[in-house]
Target: Sulfatase N-terminal domain-containing protein
Amino acid sequence: MSFSQISSCGTSTAISVPCMFSTDGKDDFDVNSSKNTENILDIVAKADISVLWRDNNSDSKGVAERVPYVSYKNPDTNPICDEECRDEGMLDGLQEYIDGQKQDVLIVLHQMGSHGPAYSKRYPVEFEKFTPSCQTSELSMCTSEEIVNAYDNTILYTDYFLSKVISLLKHNTPKYETSMIYVSDHGESLGENNVYLHGMPYMFAPEAQIHVPLIVWAGASSDVDIPKTRTLKDIPNSHDALAQTILSILEVESDVALSPTPALLKRKSVIW
Model:
């Protein structure tokens, strides 16, 4: 299920990732103090839930400082590397990790995804379906069509990666109440009004940089009520909803005040 009206906390990974997992919400978030402030992963870990952060991007931007963290940016940990290490490598050994847990589990997979400007490096050669595509990080050397095609190839690879995540969750559905939330940390400008990439000041940023995808998948054993949740998919919402959603899915009670936000999901057993 895809949500159509989600806004990001920021326009860059350095801001959006810590903000997404903050208890403060966008309006009160301070990136300078966030590394020393308890976040949602810290709260979940205190509730005796296994938390694991696997990263194939730059890093967790301080979010995973106090929980188990593994980088998949090199062949020592990531078995699927060619021109660069691939997101699907983060799934290596993940079933064995799950099998070794005796409590609930929260796993964060931080993708390289569609991060520019070198879009053509973000996917294996077999995902070169949209052509001609831009093969350089110097976007000024490419046509608009080539840039968009390269970006679309990254989306195709992300679709494949998410299908593998869902297959893993389906395998575990008989034992666990499985669910997946996929959300981008920021959007990307692909030449609209001659603007490219991301990172513009939020108040001036075009919609392309702050309008982000959010997808929810829930297994048959999950408490997520998919038919009722579909009624929320077109309601304007933001990254601020992620903190409350994580706590609710994991049934974690906390006295930490969270930023007020519309509900992102509805559960089968209770009214949200």
